[in-house]
Structures are given as C-alpha cells and as structure tokens.
Amino acid sequence: MSTASLASTSPRSEFAARLRVHWVILRTCIEERLVYRGDFMLGTLLRFLPIVTQIFLWGAIFGVGTDAVRKEIQGFSYGDMVAYYLLTMVARAFSSMPGLASGIAREVRDGTMKKYLTQPVDMLGYLFWHRVAHKLVYYAVAIFPFTLVFWLCRSYFPGWPDAFTIGVFIVSLAMSFLIGFLLESLIGLIAFWFMEVNSLLFIYMMFNYFLSGHMLPLDMFPSWLLAIVKFLPFKYLAYFPATVMLGRYSHAELVNELIVQSAWVLGLFALNRLAYNRGVNRYAAHGG
C-alpha cells in the first residue's frame, strides 16, 4: 500500500476507532446502570410523588374554586402553573446531574483520575457517555409514569403547539442536558485547584434551583432580577424548555433563544477543556 493511501485511510480508521471506544463506553455504562435496576426503578418512581403536592400547593395559592379559572398571577393561570411544573420536571430530568461534580472532585482528590491519564480515554468524554447512559435508562423506566401523569393532567395544558415549536422543545432539552453537564463538570474540575468543592457545589445547587425556574416561573421575579437572569445559562435548564411548550415565544424569539443557548454550550465546553488541560498539567506537576 502506498504512502498516499495510508495517509488517506489513517484519519478514517482513527475516527472509526474513536466511535468504537465511545460505543463501548456507552454500552458498558448502560449495563452498569441496569445492575441495580430494582433500586433504580423504585427511586425513579418515587420522584413522581412531589407532583401531587405541587398540584395541591398551587391549587391553594390560586384558591381553586369559584374564580380560579379567571385568576392569573403574572400571566399564569392555575392550569398554566400545573402544566409548567410538569414540563420543568421533564426538563430537569435532562439537565440535572446528581453526583457529577462531587465525583470528579473525589477522583482528583484521591488520585483515581490517573486512570484517564494512562489510558486512551478522555475523562470528560467518559463522564459524558456515562451520563447519557444514565438518562437513557432513566427515561426507559420513567416513560410510562410520565405518560400516565401527563395524560391525567391533560386538561391543564392549552393544547399542542405547532411542529416548529415542538422541534425547538426537543432541541432545547438536548442542549439543557449539555449545559447541565458542562456546568457541573466545570465545578468538579475546580478540584484541581481547591480540593474541597462541596461548599461551592451547595451554592451552585441553590442558585440553580432558584434561577432555573424550577422553584417558580422566572416571570414572577422582580424586573431588575429578571433582567440579570435572562443573560445567565440557568434558565435553559428548566424555564426555557417549559415555556416553549406553553407557547410563550414567537418563532423568531425561539430562534434567538436557541442561538443564545448554543452559545452557552460552546462557551462552557471551551471552559471545560481549558480547565481540564490546565488542571492536568498542574496535577502532573505536583506528582499526583
């Protein structure tokens, strides 16, 4: 075989090898999640219990009864609030990354991350596919409860939006997963400089719950706070996907929001790679 043909086939072979590595990682992580499938299924189903309390809570706030149908709070009726909360549950199921940051910090602290330095496996790439596997198994288990809950609460929804809006909703969920992953992994990578990140993680989780719209719609924030929050990535973790399905954006606004969300994904990805590369150099320089 000539040198020219080797040069032409080598990049293709290298790409195929990388795909095989990613597939093996994904398959292995799925099998790992299924080892304790009984415990996983029970934990998944129990997460649906807060739905009942939220429906009763907002029913009490709106005073369900005589004039509840006409009553609105910042443009949200009682039905809108129930629908919004159900949709944020879907979004948070994509964007939440429990244990990711603390797991990275633990591996940096106890030295087990050395396995990523001695093997042809990228740490962030491995953790990404591990989370993809977790979400795939989660939704395989949760698809029936989600379907049942949405069917029982179908009267709270204004109806199906147009096909373009549904497409944006699906894309926004995928990018909410990426933003959630990149935010938590970035916090975990801080362990290269500060060995303990639990306090920082607690602060992040508090701001995340509040500023993502998981606790209540961002429309209920004061105008000065809303002007700040709309430029942060947190709203794309829960608020934006939920309000997309509620039809609160025009098509032009949806395109603009997707551009901003994509910019956050690219920016956070660049920060992760920078933090990881510099952190590994620092880690190696100290003999870890």
Automatic annotation (TrEMBL):
InterPro entries with a match to the protein in the record: ABC-2_transporter-like (IPR010390)
Membrane spanning stretches: 40-62, 82-105, 136-157, 163-183, 190-211, 223-246
Alphabetized UniProt keyword annotations: Membrane, Transmembrane, Transmembrane helix
Protein name in UniProt: ABC-2 type transporter
Source organism of the structure: Caulifigura coniformis
